[in-house]
Structures are given as structure tokens and as C-alpha cells.
Write a structure and sequence with these properties.
- By secondary structure, the protein is of the alpha+beta class.
- It folds into two domains: 2-38; 49-195, L,D-transpeptidase catalytic domain-like, CATH 2.40.440.10.
- It has helices at 2-29, 63-70, 176-185, and strands at residues 49-50, 81-85, 90-94, 100-105, 116-119, 122-128, 134-143, 149-155, 170-174, 191-195.
- The strands form two sheets. Strands 1-4-3-2-10-5 form a six-stranded mixed β-sheet, covered by helices on one side. Strands 6-7-8-9 form a four-stranded mixed β-sheet.
- Strand 2 and strand 3 (90-94) form a beta hairpin.
- Residues 8-65 have low confidence and may be disordered.
- Keywords: Signal.
- This is L,D-transpeptidase.
């Protein structure tokens, strides 16, 4: 009797141990720090900054959306240029071959420049923005009749502006890495094309 009782206890303990191991394996499979590919296909995300090198890097289900973002807007001129899309709040740095080498989203200010072709008129490595924030890699391309200066810049601290609607400013804020790319690309007299 003692022998069969011991066997039953061992069987119960073995079953409990196997159940515990199975539960731990289930938890490990569902752990949030596991790569998404271990569970299911990764969701296509919207990358704010894409260094395309002329190629789409979004891939997967988002490839069509990524290609649309990377596509240089029609009627934006030819050759080497910066293209700023007002409605898309996006910039394309376009090489002499007509292909975007980089595209990224920007944060516009309270006033937008009119659509048209301009050239880079001046640059400053670092100044204080109209919002009082230190900015760097300032690339200016237009000053309107009322004195509003339009240009691209990045906040030194990486922040995005919270434009005061009561102030009329023309700063177009970039992320620091995008500001560096613009600075290296858009030297004085580089064409800047603003599209609706």
C-alpha cells in the first residue's frame, strides 16, 4: 500500500512539474521583450525620418506607403534641390539625378512660404529662434514683404516648436539629425522648391 501511494505521489508531482514547465514556456513565448517576428509579422510603422539612399526602406505591408512618401512631388522642378511639401509637412533632399536621398517630416511655424522656387540665401550654425529656443543648422531661403524670414532649423535640445498663433514666424523645425543633413546638403544658392 505504501508502495502504490508513493508511486501516485511521484506521478502527481511529475504531472505538476510538467504543467509548471509548460506554463513557464507559454509565458516566455508571450514575453513583451521578444522580437515581434517571434510572434507574428511586424506591423508596418511610419518612420519619421528615412535616409533612403534613393531606395524605399519601409518594406513589407508599408512599402506602397513608404514609396509614396519617398517619391519626390511632381512639379517640383529638376536637378539638385530641396523640396518642401506644405500639405505633407515633409522635406525631400533631391540629388542631381532627381532621386530623393533623404526625406523627413518637419514642424512648420505659424506662417508658410508661398509655393514657388527660391534659393538658399544665408546660413547660421547656431542662433536663438523666434520662440527663444537655441537652434542650429539654420538654412534660410526667403524673406517676405512683411519681414517674415523662412528657413529650416533644428532645436539644439531636439524639441518641436509650439507656435504661438499670435506670432507670425516662418521657422520650419527639423529633428537634429535632419538639420545636420540639410546643413550639409543645402549650401548657399541651393534651389528650394515649395509645393502646396
Amino acid at each position: 500500500m505504501a508502495r502504490s501511494s508513493s508511486g501516485a505521489i511521484v506521478a502527481v508531482l511529475t504531472a505538476a512539474a510538467l504543467g509548471g514547465v509548460g506554463f513557464l514556456a507559454f509565458q516566455a513565448e508571450a514575453a513583451p521583450d521578444r522580437p515581434a517576428s517571434a510572434h507574428a509579422p511586424a506591423k508596418a510603422g511610419k518612420d519619421k525620418t528615412e535616409d533612403t539612399g534613393g531606395k524605399d526602406k519601409t518594406g513589407g505591408a508599408g512599402a506602397d506607403q513608404g514609396q509614396a512618401q519617398n517619391a519626390v512631388p511632381e512639379n517640383s522642378g529638376t536637378g539638385l534641390r530641396v523640396v518642401y511639401g506644405l500639405a505633407q509637412k515633409r522635406v525631400w533632399l533631391v540629388g542631381s539625378d532627381g532621386k530623393a536621398t533623404r526625406t523627413y517630416e518637419v514642424a512648420p511655424s505659424t506662417v508658410s512660404p508661398p509655393p514657388g522656387a527660391y534659393t538658399v540665401t544665408s546660413r547660421s550654425p547656431q542662433v536663438t529662434g523666434s520662440d527663444g529656443i537655441p537652434i542650429e543648422h539654420v538654412v534660410r531661403f526667403h524673406k517676405d514683404a512683411t519681414g517674415i524670414v523662412f528657413g529650416f532649423s533644428a532645436a539644439v535640445d531636439g524639441s518641436s516648436p509650439k507656435p504661438d498663433p499670435a506670432k507670425k514666424t516662418g521657422g520650419i523645425r527639423e529633428q537634429p539629425a535632419d538639420g545636420r543633413a540639410m546643413w550639409e546638403f543645402a549650401v548657399n544658392n541651393t534651389k528650394v522648391v515649395v509645393v502646396p
